# Entry
Amino acid sequence: MNSAAPHQPLLLSARGLRCGYGDVEVVHGIDLEVRAGEVVALLGPNGAGKTTTLSTISGLLPRLGGDVTIFGDAQSVGKRGGITNAALQLRESGLAYVPEDRALFFGLTGREHLRLAARRGDQGAIDAALAPFPALQAILDRKAGLLSGGEQQMLAVARALAARPKLIMIDELSLGLAPIVVEQLLPLMRDICREQNVGVVLVEQHVNAALEAADRAYVMVRGQISLADSADVLLRDAAALASAYLG
Ligand SMILES: Nc1ncnc2c1ncn2[C@@H]1O[C@H](COP(=O)(O)OP(=O)(O)O)[C@@H](O)[C@H]1O
Ligand SMILES: [Mg+2]
# Structure
């Protein structure tokens, strides 16, 4: 548990956030908060609305309702669009989003990905982003399309870090990875977050591994938050967690 978190700046605050596709609402008014230096797990069954929530906060989907404040700025994007601009501006201001499909360019090398992500080619940021992933060093000149799933995952996270973000949102970091890699990557994300005072949102299917790495967690079911508590409490109370999953 990160006891410093309550005194840390609020990076993200969503109030009554409603998300969906066209007029079809799939997230029905949720509240979320992330402070600097804390890892927040967003858990819940398939189809709960986790990916939709992250995409909306990132500015890639229009918001259907509610308020979102990121780095102290109320986000103005609503139904009328301006989506691409909003996503770019958020990235500029320090929000990194690692989407479920990783969004890598298969024809570009790892090194090219990192150079594109770092501000003004900041080599120090690239080196710092690579430090947690020594295995990436040897394959930096390989095209991303030729990397294994785990290597692509690491590259996607390193690319996010290379922009020196204040808040990182990662959708299913462990998707397709061997359990042993998951057990290494999640604590690594927590260490990076603590050392750099970055906020992290982890959407995860590996519930226990996520809770062990997280400070707090939200459980989302059918577009609503069914439970929100410290990760410690949820780790100890498996029954509450299981019933939250049922909504
Ligand atoms: N592109 C889309 N168009 C319409 N509905 C979608 C789209 N993507 C997801 N949905 C629906 O939104 C709901 C939430 O999906 P999603 O956010 O992907 O859930 P999760 O990430 O928690 O598994 C699901 O009912 C899903 O079918
Ligand atoms: Mg998803």
Summary: The domain at 1-94+207-247 is CATH 3.40.50.300 (Rossmann fold).
